[in-house]
Amino acid sequence: MDLDDVNKKRIENLIKIMKVKGFLTDGKVEEAISKVPRHLFVPSDVIKYAYEDESLPTQNGQTISQPSVVARMTEWLDVKKGNKVLEIGCGSGWQSAILSLLVGDGKVFSIEISSFLVEFAKKNLAKAGIKNVEIIQGDGSLGLPEKSPFDRIIVTAACPEFPKPLVEQLSIDGLLVSPVGEFMQSMILLKKTKEGIVELKRELGYSFVPLKGKFGFQ
Ligand code: SAH
Prior knowledge:
By secondary structure, this protein is α/β, with parallel strands linked by helices. The chain has a single domain, classed as Vaccinia Virus protein VP39 (Rossmann fold, 3-Layer(aba) Sandwich), CATH 3.40.50. It has 6 helices and 9 strands. It has helices at 5-20, 27-35, 67-77, 94-103, 115-127, 164-168; strands at residues 56-57, 63-64, 84-88, 107-112, 133-137, 150-155, 170-180, 185-193, 196-206. It has a 7-stranded mixed sheet. The model has no long low-confidence stretch (mean pLDDT 96). Bound molecules: S-adenosyl-L-homocysteine (SAH). S-adenosyl-L-homocysteine is lined by residues 62-65, 88-89, 91-92, 94-95, 111-114, 117, 139-141, 156-157, 209, 211-213, 216.
């Protein structure tokens, strides 16, 4: 995953911008983001924007998330080495790559509903030399019961409400982050405790593509 000097400069600049905006405060997340070459995860026609703090198109109106939003969600998720993480909405695989560095010898499972994007993400992760991400094609709103429970779950598309199967598949003391809402979303962080579900954080003002599937919008 070596970055050439030009892209190293670009990513350093992007990191500065995210810090100024207040979206990047955790050194571990900064290190992971700085190690993943984002230009390997964007379609070739938008490669010149790979290190801008913008979401970019992947296919059919789907997107690779904006870096500062990925930074915020990843910080809230507080991933530890060895964690088993479930991501819903693999898209380009860029968020999965960042998670994979944070889990170390743990594992990331990422579900993507579009078969085109499953292949796109697989190719991108292979180019970046990432091996501990398993991509599954299907409806992520159902989770992945056969691999549950998960220490961390991240949903990278807007949900009408937290999909019930995801809450069920979270381990005790596990964290779940997701944008919730229809036109604009709130980012919400939940923790599952022995006593029940606790909302830890909520922040207004996000805009994600809608989650499809049984517990999504369609
Ligand atoms: N994490 C991605 C961003 C993806 S955008 C990245 O870093 O590039 C949201 C993704 O969720 C889209 O790729 C979309 O196809 C996918 N998606 C929408 N509904 C889904 C569902 N029910 N299950 C799995 N993936 C879904």
